[in-house]
Write a structure and sequence with these properties.
Elements lengths: L17 H67 L16 H4 L6 H4 L11 H8 L24 H9 L3 E7 L3 E6 L21 E3 L11 E5 L18 H6 L2 E6 L3 E12 L20 H14 L14 E8 L2 E9 L6 H11 L3
Parallel strand pairs: 2-3, 4-7
Antiparallel strand pairs: 1-2, 1-5, 3-4, 5-6, 6-8, 7-8
Helix pairs in contact: 1-5
Amino acid sequence: MGDKNHRRKGGSPAPEGRPRRAAAFRKSVRKKKRQRRLEGLLSAALAFVAGFSAVMCLSVAWRSVRTARLNRELSRLHEAYSAQEAPEAAQEPDAAPAFTPEAAAGPGENASDAAPDFAALPAEAPEAAMERETTPAAPAPQLTKTTVYHRDTGEALPEMARLREENRDLVGWLTIDGVLDLPVVYRDNSYYLTHDFSGEKNAAGTIFLDVDHRFSARACNLLLHGHNMKDGSMFGHLIRYTDLDYLKRHPVIEFSTLWQKERYVIIAVMRVSLDSRDASFFNYFSYPAFAGDDEYRRYVRGAQLASLFAIPVVAEPSDALLTLSTCIDDDRLVILARRFHGEETAKEMRRLVSASAWQ
């Protein structure tokens, strides 16, 4: 009885290693149970993530399809309305209508009321000329304060008037041949980030005019915003303008306001940092109009210096500007264009940019 060894019922001693092996076995069983439990939790988490990702992918795909369908329908409506209201007399397709103060003035308005004619000043007398030789010259008139850039009164274009019946926020229609063909709206800088033209929730949003660049007769620079969508909708294709060959193929932008069809040629393509301390920062969002001709010229020159490409197209203070802005990583891709002069055609502008633009 004083034997320290464990004994079986028959009195024979138990092997010394059996308790140790039993404890090790129980420990391994518990470890395997914990591993299986952990594997089950991981599997459930992975299944949830995979399911959530699938749902998100389907949601994005559905929104993309819905956006593309809406854009196609809007384009068809725009084309149909334009075809119905096309003038009987055919015009040369590449010709851009000349913009004049008379065209900008609404019914019953005089061109002289819309834009002062600084060239039509009376000739000075010889005595006045002699006095002027000894008197400091007066500063040149600042035309940008009074220039009429757009027509904003009178009868609206029939196709635009019909589309505006569907959405009162409509202010224009933006077209780049082979790139985009979309309506432009104006409300604020938030609503149309997440809503489509019909007012439905949509991550693709709608192209909209910046709230501080409200359309008016004297709005020199119209700034348009749009999402850089991966499916190419909205401003998703603008990223291609970082390639010189793409710019050469698509240098012309068409923008129809409610009252007038306008054409623009691209004069600068910029990648802009939003950090004012960065060397690539450029303040393109604070100039719906300019204090004077000098400020206009400084702005255009700064944009052309910041451009990824040298585009030999001149812009003068009497030229309206159009700016397109979209995200590119943490920066902004900014495209600046100036409106056609009356004698210019799309074919000439394409030929000029294609032959002369360089990196």
